[in-house]
Design a protein that fits this description.
The structure holds 2 protein chains of 2 kinds. Chain A contains 11 helices and no strands. Chain A is mainly α. Chain A has one domain. The longest helix of chain A has 31 residues. Chain A is elongated. The two termini of chain A are 40 Å apart. A 6-stranded mixed β-sheet of chain B has the order 6-7-8-3-9-10, with helices on both faces. In chain B, strands 2-1-4-5 form a 4-stranded antiparallel β-sheet. Chain B has a 4-stranded antiparallel β-sheet with strand order 12-13-11-14, with helices on one face.
């Protein structure tokens, strides 16, 4: 056995990081993060309990007091819940990265000849996969409390893609936050700071028209609202493209700003 | 072949107002261990992070196998292995998965990844625990896996940051054995340590740093010779006698005596050797001091450190299980590790 180990180490030539190599690195990191998720199922269970509570809370506690013209509240609500769930789940990206930073494993990764984007991209893709699972679960819960897709299979499928794509873009915001704050506990809290105004001052749970005038301006154009509106239109009917193109612009913008920011931060951490 | 594999010239690094490194020079030859010895906060980890391409120096340059760690970072990474101060392994993965992950990220082919992981597990006696999650591992096993992970790609240069800090004495000796076989196989190692006995045992050359500056350099023997001879060491039976003993023999020494109040110990540089010992014995006897122990010995690196810096190495003693004897009242080193 030892005979093979005792060969003197050779100078290994650097292999250029081609896109194919980068994809392999991203896959290796994503696989590692998904293995972690699979081996701590209790974490996954707890991360689904919170959104289910939100469903019950809004459906049965607040719902009666919220008037939504043109549809039942449960049909109105679920577009918001789907988007909120993937966004809140994305906060795990910040926490997970901060944990890796503290544990020193990011130092090891940074000392390896791997693609500089792989640790972050692998993390966000793993979180995307987790979101697919959580979203599927939420659809089941939603159906259980009376939600229905009223607009046909293809638009409903597109709606799910929209939810996941927006959540994916936002996980880069969380990646950036995780790299900046570095402490898992702080990351947990810091991640929610941008989330709260965006999720609650939006059309996710209440019609924007019910808000005071000064808030309506913000609530109408901000990314969560336009995404929720797109999802609502896709699942319930209504003007789809008006919201969809805005959602696509926002998603693209978030990626264009936060991917380079997060990767630059990773290089210099 | 004695070519230089690690070369550091005039490296400076500051964090805000903290000057972690103030112009460090050092060099390590192929298939040798360079020991970087210094107390907590001396700047060891900072230098390690610069060499491992994790941190940019403010000034100066560092080269590994002739490649600049800043400009040629992409070429440096495939030829180095890093085992940091804290075991950087994934707790939820198994030992084997950890090694295979690192192998893949070094871009070894799949069969090679598998073969190397098996070899490393075997070498570090982890085969039995290979398919268990790392969170079930002991501290020693984690460190072994961490060192193993840095070896997956068989890199010619290894950078080990305090590889035995926090280990129990048995795991420490075991780790020393592993490091020695690696060097015998031709690996060049930069090893940082707070432990004088570790540097003494493993390092071909030792660079002593303190407050970000190199304060001495040479082989273990050369450093000891800087003291210029032997050391008289004594331990008093009752702590109250320590001051009296110091007064009695202080003028016999060829340097500043060192007092270790906690152990009732006193050491005195003594070029005169046996003659100084005899004189000390007479004076102590005249002063009616009862001794536990009186001896003449070669200076240890601790004596050297004391003579160079006026304080002992590793005086911080933060993590409890430090295998080396404690020091005098010197006490508070700077905070973090
Ligand atoms: N990221 C950092 N930010 C601020 N100060 C730091 C940082 N890293 C190290 N230092 C400071 O630099 C000095 C040297 O630290 P370090 O290289 O970790 O020492 P050692 O590894 O020898 O214990 C210490 O004073 C430490 O507090
Ligand atoms: Mg350190």
């Amino acid at each position: 056995m030892t005979a093979t180990v005792t060969t003197a180490p050779a100078l290994r030539r650097a292999r250029p990081i081609t896109p194919l190599v980068a994809v392999g690195d991203i896959a290796a990191i994503a696989r590692r993060n998904l293995l972690r998720v699979a081996r701590t199922p209790q974490l996954l269970v707890f991360s689904t309990i919170q959104p289910v509570m939100f469903v019950l809370l809004f459906r049965y506690v607040f719902g009666g007091a919220i008037h939504t013209p043109g549809s039942t509240y449960v049909d109105y609500l679920m577009a918001g819940i789907f988007v909120q769930t993937t966004l809140f789940g994305g906060a795990q990206t910040a926490v997970g990265l901060a944990e890796d930073l503290r544990g020193g494993i990011v130092d090891r990764f940074r000392s390896l000849p791997m693609a500089r984007s792989a640790v972050l991209a692998g993390r966000t893709f793993a979180d995307l996969a987790r979101n697919v699972f959580v979203l599927a679960l939420m659809v089941i819960v939603a159906t259980g409390v009376g939600f229905r897709f009223h607009n046909g299979a293809v638009p409903s499928f597109v709606a799910m893609i929209v939810v996941l794509a927006f959540g994916y873009a936002f996980s880069w915001v969380f990646a950036y936050i995780g790299m900046v704050v570095k402490e898992p506990e702080t990351a947990q809290v810091a991640g929610f700071i941008p989330l709260f105004p965006l999720v609650f001052a939006s059309s996710a749970f209440v019609p924007v028209a019910s808000m005071p005038g000064w808030l309506q301006g913000f609530a109408r154009v901000q990314p969560v609202s336009v995404t929720v509106n797109a999802v609502r239109a896709l699942t319930q009917g209504g003007p789809i493209y008006h919201w969809l193109w805005q959602m696509i612009v926002w998603t693209g913008l978030i990626l264009v700003v936060f991917v380079p920011l997060a990767v630059a931060r990773y290089r210099r951490i | 072949m004695a070519d230089t594999m690690i070369e550091v010239a005039g490296v400076k690094k500051a964090f805000g107002t903290t000057k972690a490194l103030c112009g460090v020079d050092l060099a390590a030859d192929r298939a040798k261990v360079l020991g970087l010895l210094g107390p907590n906060g001396a700047g060891k980890t900072t230098l390690v992070r610069i060499l491992a391409t994790l941190l940019l120096p403010d000034e100066g340059s560092a080269r590994i196998a002739g490649l600049d760690v800043v400009r040629d970072a992409d070429a440096v990474r495939p030829i180095i292995g890093l085992a940091g101060q804290y075991a950087a392994v994934d707790e939820t993965l198994t030992g084997r998965e950890n090694l295979e992950l690192v192998g893949r990220l070094y871009h070894l082919g799949r069969p090679e990844v598998r073969r190397r992981a098996d070899e490393v597990l075997e070498r570090f006696s982890l085969t039995g625990a290979a398919d268990r999650q790392v969170k079930t591992y002991s501290g020693g096993m984690r460190r072994r896996l961490d060192l193993g992970a840095s070896l997956v790609a068989n890199p010619p240069v290894l950078i080990l940051d305090e590889p035995t800090t926090g280990l129990d004495p048995r795991s420490r000796v075991e780790m020393w054995g592993f490091i020695e076989t690696l060097v015998a196989d031709g690996t060049t190692i930069l090893l940082t340590t707070q432990y004088l006995d570790e540097a003494d045992r493993l390092a071909h050359r030792i660079v002593v740093i303190d407050y970000g500056k190199v304060i001495a350099e040479g082989t273990s023997d050369q450093l000891k010779d800087q003291l210029g001879g032997d050391v008289v060491e004594l331990r008093v039976a009752s702590p109250g006698d320590l001051d009296k003993a110091l007064a009695a023999i202080a003028e016999l020494g060829d340097g500043k005596p060192q007092v270790d109040a906690e152990y009732g110990r006193l050491t005195l540089p003594a070029k005169g050797g046996p003659a100084t010992l005899m004189a000390a014995a007479r004076r102590l006897d005249e002063s009616d001091i009862t001794l536990e122990d009186l001896s003449l010995r070669r200076p240890s690196l601790d004596d050297v450190f004391m003579a160079l810096t006026g304080h002992s190495a590793g005086a911080d003693g933060s993590d409890g299980d430090e295998p080396q004897p404690a020091d005098d009242a010197g006490g508070g080193r700077r905070g973090t590790t």
